[in-house]
Amino acid sequence: MNYPEKSFYRPQPADGPTAVALVDARYLRWLSRSQETEAQVHLSREGVPDLVRHAMQRSGVRASLLRTYWYADQDDQSVHDEQTLRLMPAGDTDGVSLVRQMSSDLQALVAGGRVGVVCIASDDDRLMPVIDAAKLAGVMVCLLTDERAQSMGRLMQQDPTWARLLREADRRLVVRSSEFAQAMLARAPSAGDGPVSADLDAQLRGVVQAWWEDLVEDDRETLREELPGQRGLPAEVDRELLIRAKNAIGRSLNFQEKRVLRAQARELATGLGSEASGALEQDV
Question: Is pTM beyond 0.70 here?
Answer without folding.
Answer: no
